[in-house]
Amino acid sequence: MRPLAVLGGTFDPVHIAHLAVAWEASELLDAEVRLMPASIPPHRPPPVADATSRVAMLRAALRGQDRLGLETRELARGGPSYTVDTLAELRAEERNRPLILLLGADAFTGLPGWHRWRELFEVAHLGVLSRPGMTHDWPAELAREMATRQVGDPRRLHEQPAGKVVELMVTPLEISSTRIRDLLAAGREPRFLLPEALFQDAALLAPYRQDAQAVRAP
Ligand code: ATP
Ligand code: MG
């Protein structure tokens, strides 16, 4: 069965590297891929844009193609979203379909700090997306987990519902939402780092521009 892969994140805001790596992952894995915004991410400070705005940006960004979808179930749940609970919910709905949690290499390195992280392997496979600046220096407990789970060929994830880890070597794009928020707050116009659609409706990027206006105001 064709796997379902989800790329979780804050998407504050979504940028072209999110879209490019998700797209490449769908090709490498031959999987349906959904971008899944977190409402209150437990591992980081609260997002600048609220959940409704982040979803509006994602919808605008995803328009015009049908390979990447949107998964909003963590927003519906409210409160902190633990990935392990979300994946268990998906597992119950998708029965034996292979599920894949996609993570950038930076997020993957932090995995041992996540709520009930070892249980993730019981409900899903992990697909680790290469990211510029990240090495293969995984923390020891993660390296131990990988020793028995890692496979080289992404197609191996079609063979069972969960439990494997694969590294996906995607085009290196050194773009982050942090950088984009900084540029917008400084009054810059980060065109071509963000999907074009985000510039077509002034309301979409307004949450990030407010700081800059406040600083400039007399
Ligand atoms: P921030 O700077 O706010 O953390 P971000 O650019 O890292 O933003 P997130 O919403 O944190 O975006 O990322 C969602 C997921 O996408 C994470 O798993 C992250 O590792 C991955 N990701 C984000 N940008 C890239 C990139 N340039 N290359 C590979 N993976 C990425
Ligand atoms: Mg991040």
Automatic annotation (TrEMBL):
Its EC number(s): 2.7.7.18
Record GO biological process: NAD+ biosynthetic process
Catalytic activity: nicotinate beta-D-ribonucleotide + ATP + H(+) = deamido-NAD(+) + diphosphate
Gene Ontology molecular function: ATP binding; nicotinate-nucleotide adenylyltransferase activity
Classification via CDD domains: NMNAT (cd02165)
Domain Cytidyltransferase-like: 6-182
Keyword Nucleotidyltransferase: yes
Pathway assigned to this chain's UniProt record: Cofactor biosynthesis; NAD(+) biosynthesis; deamido-NAD(+) from nicotinate D-ribonucleotide: step 1/1
Enzyme type, top EC level: transferase
Keyword ATP-binding applies: yes
Role this protein plays: Catalyzes the reversible adenylation of nicotinate mononucleotide (NaMN) to nicotinic acid adenine dinucleotide (NaAD).
HAMAP family, per database record: NaMN_adenylyltr
Protein name: Probable nicotinate-nucleotide adenylyltransferase
Native source species: Frateuria terrea
Lineage: Bacteria, Pseudomonadati, Pseudomonadota, Gammaproteobacteria, Lysobacterales
